[in-house]
Amino acid sequence: MEETINLKELFLTLKKRLSLIIIIAAIATATSGIVSYFLLTPIYQSSTQILVNQAKSEEQIYNYNEVQTNLQLINTYSVIIKSPAILDKVIEKEKMDMSYRALNELVTVSSEQDSQVVNISVKNEDPKIAANIANSIAVTFQEEISKIMNVDNVSILTQAQLGEDPSPVKPKPLLNMAIALVAGLMAGVGLAFLLEYLDNTIKSEQDIENVLGLPVLGAITTINIEEEAAASANMSTTIGTRGESFGS
């Protein structure tokens, strides 16, 4: 006998296990909030910008080919910025107890398309240290690039600044809790259907027909003797009261 999906049964299953679903979602959300607020270390990010552009005198005019050359050099500069030639010197300058590989993972270099501006971003547990490292990388790169490639077309556009109340870039507790809530609901719904699937007890006449494939000829009603006796006594009292009323 083929089984068909009954939307009403699905709804009744969710309603039946609603408390379980809510509990799982609440636990997941609360756990995510506790981990995000109290266990994860906040990470701050600070950024500085450098401009790749050859300095010109008033007699020099705009040169399109030179701009294109600068744009093509940006990819090369991005690699050099994160190379040991720059980061090792930054570690030495800032007297950091950190390896080149560890610092490299904290540094991100990016640029907009067709833009001569390069963004250098640094992440650290301390926002002040992140700003200092970002500025040190920019200054060190500006000093060393002339030695490495024999060019002088890099200038610092903006320096990393430490705000009055810096906010961490991660973790993001509200986002984490929202994700945990959705995941908890999905897990709760999945568990509810799994429990319903594993429950092979027969609860109704329909279950008998579905499992055994036999029609139900009759059903035995459960009778509570105490409730029936109380109901009979109440009915007798009511009839007696009415009889007295009519007799009077």
UniProtKB/TrEMBL annotation:
Pfam families annotated for this entry? GNVR, Wzz
Q: Is Transmembrane a UniProt keyword of this protein?
A: yes
Query: Taking every annotated instance into account, which residue ranges of this chain make up the domain Tyrosine-protein kinase G-rich?
Result: 142-194
Record-linked InterPro entries: Bact_polysacc_biosynth/exp (IPR050445), GNVR (IPR032807), LPS_length_determ_N (IPR003856)
Q: Which domain of life is it from?
A: Bacteria
Q: Which UniProt keywords apply?
A: Cell membrane, Membrane, Transmembrane, Transmembrane helix
* Protein's cellular compartments: Cell membrane
Q: Key word Transmembrane helix present in the record?
A: yes
Residue span(s) of domain Polysaccharide chain length determinant N-terminal: 3-93
Report how it sits in the membrane: Multi-pass membrane protein
TM ranges are 20-40, 174-195
UniProt record similarity statement:
Belongs to the CpsC/CapA family.
* Name under which the protein is recorded: Capsular polysaccharide biosynthesis protein
- Species, as recorded: Metabacillus niabensis
